[in-house]
Write a structure and sequence with these properties.
Order of helices and strands: HEEHEEEEEEEEEEEEEEEEEEEEHE
Helix content: under 10%
Number of helices: 3
CATH class: Mainly Beta
Number of domains: 1
CATH architecture: Beta Barrel
Amino acid sequence: MDNPGDDVRRTTAVLLIVGLVLAPAAAQARDPMLLIDEQGLEVRMHLQAGVNAVAEQNLFWNFADTFAPTSGFDSDTRWLEGYLMPGISFTADVGEQFALYGKLSVVASGTLGTDAFDAGSTGAVALEDAYLGLRTTAEAGIFFDISFGPRPFKAGTGMLIANGGSSGFERGALKLGPRKAWEQAAILRFGRDDLAATAFYIDANELSNKDSGTKILGTDLRYEVDEDRYAGLTFGHVVNSNSPYPRAAAGGIGPPVVLPGARDGLSFINAYGRANPFEGTLAGFFVGGDFAYQWNPEINLQAWGGRFQIGYAFEEMSWAPTISYSYQTFSGDDPSTSRLERFDPLYYEGNPSSWSTGTKSSMMFLNSNVNAHQVSLQVKPSAADTWTLRYAHIRANELNSPIQFGQGTRLDDVDGTPTPMAGVSNRHLADDIYLEYSRVINPNTFLTAGASISFPGKGVDSLTKENSPNWLGGFVNVIVNL
């Protein structure tokens, strides 16, 4: 008898093929997704689909040979993943000043082969968007917008609140990560012109076997002139969570202590901003910054994280190059104090153009007890083609303290006695290089290909007691969005 998961994977594969074949053809017609466009009512279909081929060599610097030699984990793997997201939305006028709106969508996703986390041939079909809202229709002046139900939501730059849905493992599509919507969301946004205040209550759509039950209540105040010039402040409080935290052993000697339910009661404040401070010949210069502080008196937690960015866009030059530098850092637990200083990255937007620490390394290290100097160069040979080169130098903030959740616990010689230790004994974790190419095939179809390599630092080598191999990988994907 067939496994029910096989039916899901077969259905997902068929839907993906149909979606990727038909969507570009449909895009050639005149707005074929618009079902109803009458006075005061618009109903629109939506379709998003993607397929991604991935290859990895020496995954996680081949750590499996040291920490799980009998697990059968293959550090060299290739897989194919994809998803299809059909949906329908509507907007209906309510009087002269308001509009009722909503959206319903589902995601069918799957993976063929074994991915980076040893999940093989998985897939699922699940709800994505299912929200209703009411908003004002005026283009300027005072505005109001309230919605309830599963939907995407990001606060600030996505440092803490962005990715409401989990992908990979039993859901498949690990790298594409199609799920973004929160499982439940209540969002109230109001303001005037460039100033907006947002109140939110969100519940993350996590994997069923890893659901922490985290629910966050918060507010965001934002002043935005345009997408490149803004400033804001986000405050949030975790009203419920079962998520545990690791605490470094006293003096860093011994394995980390796990504190169950430690995220419950966490509060945080996040200030952020970006500006183009000059005009004329220096108009391409930009600068940005983020800072977050977290506290929880119940477990004596005080943690911090932040980022500084600076760059220049040479828009008048051939290929319009943009070069930027950023430094981001997130506190780790200091083994010499009784206080807990581990930064909780919550649900950050983890892609190379946003808040990932490195590229390959971001699969190994969460934004906790790490810092990174990152440089990027982007060029556009044509309106349809973009090349981006990224480099990241990644280090640990605290030695002998958990990185991510405490992986890397090892035996070190302490006064002649083999003793379990957490974290690393050298701050240098890795150096990542990533080259990406993007092509706009048509207004609805996009191709992206990338290749990356991660060179392990002395901190990573200290875990294995030897020179770890370089970690290489590449991918190519196509996304259709109607």
